[in-house]
Write a structure and sequence with these properties.
Helix content: 40-55%
Order of helices and strands: EHEHEHEHEEEEHHHHHHHHHH
CATH superfamily of the largest domain: Dehydroquinate synthase-like - alpha domain
Strand order of the largest sheet: 1-8-5-4-2-3
CATH architecture of the largest domain: Up-down Bundle
Bound molecules: nicotinamide-adenine-dinucleotide
CATH class of the largest domain: Mainly Alpha
Strand content: 5-15%
Number of helices: 14
Structural class: alpha/beta
């Protein structure tokens, strides 16, 4: 067995169906008496129930959360935090809303309760990526890690099949990279394999029948495990590429992960045979990269960067950026091979699979 270090994240998780009803108790648990509730404009209808449920402890609401946590949005929200003298935050939504709560917590150290409605996994990490002047900068701090996460399967039932599929593959990506992380450990690897298995089985069922509660519960469970993986060990090529592409061409987050994952995995496959064996077992597919490509095809999600808005002229720029800042990856980063990977992903080709380096 390899040498490893494992550290548990100090947070509380409530998981189930109908668990939103536990919000008042969880506020008491944290001693919050004036909660500011955060959401996106699209999910503002969720606020009425929360306001009724927490009564006098509802201090105010901000429904301007946006993708990539723009600093100007956080500053507007900070104005409300101060006006209503909030002593706690309730973030209900996907990664964008969670990101806003984290950005406020970074500035105030207010306790956070997150109610995730997608599979992005941000609620499990002490990291926030904030955008200012078109540049996204990532920061990590113990203040950013939410104190409590309430997973309620009911909150995910409204997720449209397309978002469920891409958000679910976004979660699979965290687990895939955890399996070949330099700082991986046996416990996180168990979670990662189980996350991939659970999500790969649940997502097709959800796309066929979006109100399948059992499949929704499995997917949320898998997303939780994937989020733990993301928060616990380092990510490599796949996450770096998605960060670069998303930031440079303003591409949608979950869709970018969905397109890139099979290609990034094919790139790393020769240098990570143990991880590949675990991913193959979890997917029930002999070639993990092709297995993920097939899963995406079955889910009828975008398969190319072209479809999600990247210009062809960006391929070289993206390749240059991807090799610019050195970072650890199981296989060395070679510009021409990376350019080839991005070009294939842009066209929507199947991933290029190669044999293991032994
Ligand atoms: P999102 O939060 O932007 O959600 C996309 C849209 O779907 C939003 O309009 C949202 O309101 C809506 N939505 C979410 N759940 C829904 C539901 N159940 N029903 C109906 N509509 C719903 O997208 P996302 O993919 O969840 O999160 C992406 C963001 O999270 C990115 O900014 C990304 O960088 C960040 N993120 C950060 C981390 C981290 O650890 N810091 C991890 C993962 C993602």
């Amino acid at each position: 067995m390899q040498h490893f270090v494992y550290q548990n994240a100090p947070m509380r998780v409530v998981f189930g169906t109908g668990t939103l009803r536990q919000l008042p108790d969880e506020l008491s648990h944290l001693g919050v008496t004036r909660a500011l509730v955060l959401a996106t404009p699209r999910q503002k209808d969720l606020i009425a129930d929360i306001s009724e449920m927490i009564g006098e402890r509802f201090a105010g609401v901000f429904t301007g959360a946006a993708m990539h946590t723009p600093v100007e949005v956080t500053e507007r929200a900070m104005g409300i935090v101060n006006d209503v003298r909030a002593d706690g935050l309730v973030a209900i939504g996907g990664g964008s809303t969670t990101g806003l709560g984290k950005a406020i917590a970074l500035r105030t150290d207010l306790p956070q309760i997150v109610l995730p409605t997608s599979y992005a996994g941000s609620e499990m990490t002490p990291v926030v990526g904030q955008t200012s002047g078109g540049i996204k900068t990532t920061q990590s701090s113990p203040k950013i890690l939410p104190e409590t996460v309430i997973y309620d399967v009911d909150l995910t039932m409204t997720m449209p099949p397309g978002l469920s599929a891409t958000s679910g593959i976004n979660a699979i990506a965290h687990a895939v990279e955890a399996l070949y992380a330099r700082d991986r450990n046996p416990l996180i690897s168990l979670m990662a394999q189980e996350a991939i298995r659970t999500l790969a089985h649940a997502l097709p069922a959800i796309c066929a029948q979006p109100n399948d509660k059992a499949a929704r519960a499995d997917a949320l469970y898998g997303a939780w495990l994937s989020g733990i993986c993301l928060g616990a060990v380092g990510m490599s090529l796949h996450h770096k590429l998605c960060h670069t592409l998303g930031g440079s061409f303003n591409l949608p987050h979950a869709e970018t992960h969905t397109v890139i994952l099979p290609h990034a995995l094919a790139y790393n496959a020769p240098a990570a045979p143990e991880a590949m064996a675990r991913i193959a077992a979890a997917l029930g597919a002999p070639d993990p990269a092709l297995g993920l490509h097939d899963l995406a095809r079955k889910l009828a999600v975008p398969l190319s960067l072209r479809e999600i808005g990247m210009p062809e002229s960006g391929i070289d720029q993206a390749a240059d950026l991807a090799v610019k800042n050195p970072y650890w990856n199981p296989r060395p980063i070679e510009r021409e091979a990376i350019r080839n990977l991005i070009a294939r992903a842009w066209r929507g080709d199947a991933p290029e699979t190669t044999r293991a380096i032994v």
